[in-house]
Each structure stands twice: as structure tokens, then as C-alpha cells.
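Annex B. Sample input.
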Amino acid sequence: MTDQSTDQPLAEQYLLELRIALGYANSAANRVYVDEISRHIAEGSADLSPADAEGLRRLLNRLGSPTEIALAFHESQREAYHSNRGAAAASARNHLADPGGNSAMFDLLGPV
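Annex B, continued. Sample output.
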């Protein structure tokens, strides 16, 4: 995390850095993810007094740096994308290999 010398509270600065690290790719998913992290911070800091900056720092350190979290998020998005692509391709291959499931459609097409 960067220097906290700004007048923004620690959690807001952390979330800002997370938004920057996530970038603009798939911004709808990014917003959902930032909201989820924000809820984790709120839940984790619920028992802290507002003046307990050190307790909040420990909580944020346990979450990991915004850059680390953004990298993990992007990796999970990439894996989900490739997994979905693989499932769709496998489904198409299975369908082409065994067209009996839609034999009426293949009957219309005639022999290949």
C-alpha cells in the first residue's frame, strides 16, 4: 500500500488503490469485486474503534496489497474465461461427434 499521508481514511485509500490496480477491463465485474472487498473490510473492522488505525492496517495487511488482490482477481477471471471456452468447445465437439441428439436437424442437412 502507498503512503497514507493523504487525508483519505485508510480503507478508502485501500479501495482506491484496488480500483486502480484492477483497471478498466470488465469494469462491471471489477465493481462487484471491489464491493465484496469493501464488505469484508466493513465486517472485519466492525469491532474496531474509529481511532484504531493500527487495527485497520493489520486487517488490510491480512487481505494483501491491492496489487496482489487485483492480480489474483484477474487470474481467476482468466481461468473462468478459459474454463467456459473449453466447456463450450467440448460441448460443440461432442455434438458434432454424436449428432444423434439433434438427428432431426442433421436429417435436414443430409449426408456430410
